[in-house]
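Entry 14. Ran structure prediction on the chain below.
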Amino acid sequence: MWIVVGILFLVVGITILSGHFAFSITPAPSTDAPASLGTAYSDIYFINYNDELLHGWWMQHPDASAESPLPTIILLHGWNRNCQRMIPYIKHLSMFPMNILCIEGRGHGENRKNNFITQVGFAHDILSAINWLVLQPGVQVEQIGVLGHSLGAAAAIYAGSLDKRIRFIIADASYAHPLTIIRNFLRGYHIPYLPLGWMLIQYIQLRLWLSLDRIAPENVICDLTQPVLLIHGDQDTIVPARDSQRLLTNANNNIDLWIARSANHSDTPDHPEFRAVLQGFFRTHLKFSDPLSLSIARPENTSATSDNPTTFN
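Output, structure tokens:
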């Protein structure tokens, strides 16, 4: 009997250690900044729900003021990235009349190491960033949105289901269910699913006090009532584009999907139609005119199909 108990404790211990190893990284600060684009910014810090100090870049639009507040978009990167990863998005977004807050999720960038980084934690970091934002002059609190990439995209969808202060969402390369990502992640570290992988997933759910089904983007997206733009590269080798198709299938009619032709997981902002897609979404849902009077044509095909699923209602 004691041998069985000892083996059980050993397996549990290995499971916990495996989780800390697999779901933490060594934070790496950005080596580039929005200044390289000619965009003025300031480093800001805010406290999240775990009393951790998180870092971000604040880019207030020059026309924004307490008397004339503007919409604001929060940017959040994916796994093992930092604010620098979002510079290609900032390049496009800085052309629109909005403020930009790019944040680094817990355990990333300039933040201290965190041994339990999850989609739920990232979502809570978004909500903490909103708490900081609503106190800033020049922020139109009724028009705060989130743009996330990969893990940041899944977190944005989950955060939007928790807090209706998020009025619009842009999710680039979101996965449909974290279980698939976790299993692929464990496979990359040669951690067998049975018994360690299965026990690790139970450990994650116990720590979260939530099931993975409960937080899966494909399951919570039907709770969203705000406008959502899903973006995915059709050549994505990390999170396949079919994941966004699964999200669209489960969503209400407030969800749009754009498939970027020949784009992989991290290069959709380089697509020649990317800014036009953003413009169409903002024009419809934020009533923006052309950014800085630039004339940008929208993509010709706008039907929400697997051939070219882009729609703006």
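Strands lie at 42-47, 53-59, 70-76, 99-103, 139-149, 166-172, 228-233, 255-260. Will compare against last week's run tomorrow.
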